[in-house]
Amino acid sequence: MQHAAITGRHALHFDIVGGSGEHSTRDVEVYATREEIEQLATQGYLLRERLFPQEELERLREAMDAVEADEARSEHIARGVHFGGWFPRHLMDKHPTFLELIKFPPTLSVARAVLGPYVNIRQLGARVSYPGEPNQQTHWHIHRRHVPEPSPAFYVYPHTIDCLIYLDDTDDASGPLAILPGSHLGTHDDIASGDLSEKPEQLTLRLAAGSCVVMHSNIWHRAYPTTPQGRKRRLLILCYGPTWMRRSAFGVKPEDGLRDRLLAETDDPEVRELLGVGGYQ
Known about the structure:
By secondary structure, the chain is α+β, with helices and mostly antiparallel strands. The chain contains six helices and twelve strands.
């Protein structure tokens, strides 16, 4: 899948202690500058405006619309105050266009730069919010924090990366994204469930279609509501995690989905690793 030019890149070489043979080193061409990776590490997000050219954007929209036409029903749309909209999962099993994101360098290389050389795709899901439905927002939330108190000596904090790919423009009518920069580092900070209030430290992002926000899964964020004056808003959520982390449990994986067929046919070790077969376990 094509993408906008990213001129700021750097090479990253991993020497893997304990690895052997082909797993003793790994080289990554990171589609970001070292300063951008530092921003992602410290602030919890990296913005790529208009990452997807118009032609690719239209293909992603058509794929999302095809899944929506096949699956979405009125009773599937959430209308509660916490999470509004329709949340389809396992999109790579449902349309071949989404398989083209498996080795998408602008997101995959950045995930490897901050998570390490061995990552896989935990999930490709989506959120669609509708202007004619009530409560098409999300409250302040995080995706993967589950930190005990006291922290055990060898507790492993859950680090994953979510890439929010916007298929439609987001403005005040269709619902922008708000994040709290750096909040992924506050491992025991909390915001009460159902909180929709504005925060003095929040950053509100009004993004053009085709833009991507790469963010730590545990940065506090919320989506403003899609209002009756807005347009339907389609958002893909591409999530990466270490190969040894359990895969996402959300949604029902289709039997004989497209990923299973691809795995049965391919001998590409990188594809197999990214789809959960191979890599360091």
